[in-house]
TrEMBL record, chain A:
It comes from Sphingobacterium corticibacter. This is DUF4876 domain-containing protein. Residues 1-21 form the signal peptide. It holds the Pfam family DUF4876. InterPro entries: DUF4876 (IPR032627), Ig-like_fold (IPR013783). Keywords: Signal.
TrEMBL record, chain B:
The keyword Signal applies. This is DUF6850 domain-containing protein. Pfam families: DUF6850. It comes from Sphingobacterium corticibacter. Residues 43-513 form the DUF6850 domain. Keywords: Signal. InterPro entries: DUF6850 (IPR049236). Residues 1-22 form the signal peptide.
Length: 447, 513
């Protein structure tokens, strides 16, 4: 019996020895990566710090797997990430005081910077270092390319008759102009005791307009339009190819030549060089059918070859699309998703300091979320400064045309780069950086 | 010696049999029966240890329920087994065969459309909704051995087909076919010493498909309990896998192996030894019928090394049996699609067990004592996500069975078994950044399961009625309850934790002649 027990134990001991094998580790490993954040625009990168930028990593289904903050050099490490496809994004919300102090601007609200979500395949053989570029505001395919609001000389040129706005397709895919809205944004241009203003920016405090709901952020989330035009079309009638643009003219004629007004009187031009030929534009603003008081302006003729825009709102009793040559109004393009019928859009008056009842409803409330592009126009005079009508969400800077009113100059976006023959225009959501002055040139480029 | 045998129960290290099919409890030949089934698994001893001629028809209805289980195990199951087996000797060939049918109904099976016969699969479909699974398996087995003087030729064939499906959305449907064959040669070197060598070959296929009665589930990636995920590795990725990628794949398996045998008869009993090496290769692929090409998903290879050592002695009115077993399996995969064949998953599963049994035959009574102890250790390591589960457990049981033989040769027996289990080591880790649905529904639950201490008991009551000639009828009822303790919260996001109880029951009827 004892022998058998001994034998059993020996055999078992042998088995135990065999059991001690080397451990094998799998080839595949998790990966540690580094994310570097930087500002897209050099103006910010020299003024704003790179620390405490929130970096998020999302998995393939969009779920957040990592959230961390950058160090003073704008770097953050993401350890032990399983190989796969991830989205990386950087965001930072600057408290308004910090932002103003660092950038020298006068924002009213906190400023959000974010990068596009960069999708990366991460594995043992891939890059381990990624960068994200932070920009403020949102980016869209269509941008306002050129605004000729200054007009030309009142006597020798075309005065205000030759205004135009040009919209450009800055993406690589076809976009459609059908149904696009173009509007002039209203704001305070001077300070007085009559109205209520926001503390820092000096702009109207729209939250105090009569009838403004109290459960919305009337200043940060909306702009207020005095003119609203809409391009016609059923959806795909007016394509804008990549790298091309559409021009909307106040009056689509060749202003370099005389033409006959609607009253039969000839309209002449002394110095054609001061103005532009708008006879080949894509759309025109023909106001005559909308004028219900007084007489339409004779210079606003209808070019039968150029489709007319739909005029939803004229500023006051405007008889044509006459832009403020002093730059008192800014411009937006937007779409109407989630806004309901045009007739249902709410409008308000400027906020009176004494809170008096006003129901004229001059300015239509447009949600910032619907704005595709915005350009803040500023006074060309260095002694005059209009308070900003847009927050940094829409346009962090402004542009004023060199030469001012009646200079024959327009403001136009600079070209950022050319890819396969297609121009990509600057769009950092900051007109100060994105725009320059040129002599008005529909479909032309700055550089 | 008699006293010591009665009172001292030898416990080495043993293996707890997690059997759902209750062992036949015919006390007169419990040890003999264990040797018989050992010889069926190792057919060099077919001639010697399987009866010349016997037939057994067996039907069993049993089930288990309780929440102390692995996450992918069923919360409740009911199974019916019917099998008929027997041996016969034709000319000089000892033949044995079995036909068995098994149907299991499972409730609350989640996060894995699997057969349960391939527990380390590195790729499978899963969703977190609870399924009602129906599994049907048919198995035909045959063994044979013929002696030619000192030589013998022996072999066997196993053929199994299975059909698994869940009858609520998401409807997993698995078709299985497995064929295994073995052929060996042995030689008696002397009267007492015999050696043998056997070659094994097998192939099979498991074919998986997931469908939905409600079309919306197959198109929408909304995160619901119907969303179908593909689980890659042991937590590397758990991604939605929808209609566009084809919710089907097949696992083609090929197995090769060899086994060496040795038996030695001595004055102090007979020794049996086996040692085996097997290798299985599994190829997971989608066969895209329309395009007649294959989309290979994963290639998985599992090695299996092990051996058995058994000793038995019958002396006077006592019988002894000691059996030591050891198996070491290790598997590695190659993720072919989307990862260029990198090895991501490493699997190791070792079991070492010892069983000791003693039967004492008296006039009207028989006493049978058994002790099992086993050490199981398993490592599952996923490279991509850094998921690691490495545990080892000790499980043991002690049982005592008493059989009373009446004057009419009827037998009544009662058996009581005590069960206990304890984890020796549990190492687990996964970086939080890589936690996904798999960890939430399976991994943390299983870590909790392996950390538990278990204790339990099993009771069996049986009755054997002899009929004319050598026929008999046997009825058996058994009940087992296991309770777990020491399951702690891991502090990570988990959908469920294992419960504290698991019960088994079985009723069986056998007719033998």
């Amino acid at each position: 019996m004892k022998q058998s027990i001994q034998l059993v134990l020996i055999c078992f001991a042998l088995l135990s020895v065999v059991a001690c094998k080397k451990d094998v580790a799998p080839e595949n490993q998790s990966v540690s990566i580094e994310v570097n954040a930087a500002f897209g625009e050099s103006d910010y990168s020299s003024k704003l710090k790179l620390d405490a930028i929130t970096i998020q990593v999302f998995d393939i289904s969009g779920k957040e797997v990592f959230k961390g903050e950058t160090d003073a050099q704008g770097r953050v490490s993401v350890p032990n990430l399983a190989p796969g496809r991830y989205g990386i994004q950087g965001t930072k919300t600057y408290p308004v005081n910090d932002f103003n102090a660092a950038s020298g601007l006068s924002e009213e609200f906190d400023v959000l910077f974010s990068s596009a979500i960069e999708t990366e395949d991460i594995n043992l053989n891939s890059e381990k270092s990624f960068s994200v570029e932070l920009r403020n505001g949102s980016y869209n395919a269509l941008v306002i390319k050129q605004i000729y609001y200054a007009g030309s000389d009142a006597n020798r040129g075309a005065n205000f008759r030759d205004h135009f706005i040009e919209v450009y397709n800055n993406s690589e895919e076809v976009q459609y102009a059908d149904g696009l809205y173009i509007a002039e944004a209203q704001g305070a241009n001077s300070a007085s005791t009559t109205y209520a203003y926001q503390a820092r920016s000096g702009q109207y405090d729209w939250s105090r307009s009569f009838g403004m709901p109290t459960d919305i952020n009337a200043n940060a989330d909306y702009v207020y339009a005095r003119t609203i035009l809409q391009l016609p079309g059923t959806g795909q009638q007016y394509p804008i190819r990549a790298g091309e643009s559409i021009v909307i003219a106040a009056t689509a004629v060749n202003h370099k030549q005389p033409y006959q007004g609607t009253d039969g009187v000839g309209i002449s031009i002394q110095d054609p060089e001061l103005t532009v030929d708008l006879s080949q534009t894509d759309f025109e603003a023909y106001y005559t059918p909308y004028v219900d008081r007084g007489r339409p302006i004779a210079s606003d003729v209808d070019n039968p070859n150029v489709p007319n825009v739909i005029v939803h709102r004229r500023a006051g009793n405007a008889t044509d699309l006459i832009l403020s040559s002093n730059g008192q109004h800014s411009f937006i393009i937007f779409r109407d998703q989630n806004m309901g019928a045009v007739t249902s859009w709410k409008s308000y008056d400027a906020p009176y300091a004494d809170g008096r009842e006003r129901t004229d409803g001059e300015f239509v409330q447009i949600p910032v979320a619907n704005i595709i592009d915005a350009v803040e126009i500023q006074s060309s005079s260095t002694t005059t400064r209009y308070p900003k009508k847009f927050t940094a969400q829409s346009d962090a800077g402004w542009i004023a045309v060199t030469g001012g009113a009646r200079s024959s100059n327009s403001v136009i976006r600079k070209t950022k780069e050319t890819i396969n023959g297609r121009r990509v225009l600057m769009d950092t959501n900051n007109s100060t950086a994105d725009f320059v002055t040129i002599k008005a040139n529909p479909r032309g480029f700055a550089n | 010696m008699q006293h010591t045998n009665k009172y001292i129960l030898w416990v080495c290290f043993t293996f707890l049999c997690q059997i759902t099919l209750a062992q036949e409890s015919n006390t007169l030949d419990t040890i003999q029966r264990q040797i018989r089934y050992f010889a069926i698994d190792n057919p060099m001893w077919l001639h010697e240890s399987v009866e010349n001629r016997y037939t057994l028809l067996h039907a069993q209805y049993g089930g288990m329920q309780g929440e102390y289980r692995l996450a992918q195990d069923a919360g409740k199951s009911r199974s019916t087994h019917v099998n008929s087996e027997g041996s016969i000797t034709l000319k000089d060939v000892r033949l044995w065969g079995r036909f068995s049918y098994n149907r299991t109904l499972e409730d609350s099976t989640r996060f894995g459309h699997q057969t349960r016969q391939n527990p380390s699969a590195p790729f499978y479909f899963a969703s977190y909704g609870n399924n009602h699974y129906v599994r049907t398996n048919y198995t035909i087995q045959a063994r044979g051995q013929r002696y030619f003087d000192k030589w013998s030729v022996f072999g066997g064939l196993d053929y199994r087909i299975g059909d698994h499906f869940s009858n609520n959305d998401p409807r997993g449907s698995i078709d299985v076919i497995q064929v295994d064959g073995q052929l060996g040669v042995s030689r008696k070197l002397s009267e007492d010493l015999e050696i043998g060598l056997e070659a094994q070959y097998g192939y099979g296929q498991e074919s998986f498909e997931v469908a939905f009665k409600n079309e919306n589930y197959v198109l929408s990636p909304a995160v619901t309990r119907y969303l179908n995920y593909a689980v890659i590795g042991y937590g590397w990725q758990t991604n939605d896998w929808l209609l566009a990628r084809g919710i089907h794949y097949q696992n083609d398996m090929k197995r090769y192996g060899s086994q060496a045998y040795l038996s030695y008869n001595t004055k102090i009993g007979k020794f049996y030894a086996t040692a085996h090496y097997k290798q299985e290769k599994q190829v997971y692929q989608q066969v895209l019928r329309n395009e007649s090409r294959n989309n290979v998903l994963n290639e998985y290879a599992i090695d299996d090394i092990g051996g058995d050592l058994m000793w038995q002695l019958r002396r006077n009115n006592r019988a002894y049996l000691v059996q030591l077993s050891s198996t070491m399996r290790s598997g590695q995969d190659k993720v072919v699609f989307q990862a260029n064949g990198i090895n991501n998953f490493v699997y190791e599963h070792d079991t070492h067990s010892a069983k000791i049994a003693h039967t004492y035959y008296a006039q009207k009574w028989q006493f049978h004592f058994e002790g099992f102890a086993g050490m199981t250790s398993e490592t599952r390591q996923d490279g991509g996500s850094g998921t690691l589960l490495d545990y080892s457990r000790l499980d043991g049981s002690l049982s005592a069975m008493a059989t009373y033989i009446t004057s009419k040769n009827q037998q009544v027996h009662l058996s009581i078994t005590g069960l206990a289990g304890k984890p020796l080591t549990v190492n687990w880790s996964v970086p939080e950044i890589n936690e996904n649905m798999f960890h939430r529904y399976v991994y943390f639950h299983d870590v909790g399961y392996h950390q538990a201490n278990t204790q339990g008991a099993r009771f069996e009551l049986g009755f054997r009625q002899p009929l004319k000639r050598k026929d008999f009828v046997r009825v058996l009822a058994s009940l087992q309850t296991v309770s777990a303790s020491n399951i702690s919260d891991l502090g990570r996001q988990t959908a469920t934790l294992p419960g504290l109880k698991r019960n088994h029951f079985a009723l069986s009827l056998a007719y033998g002649f």
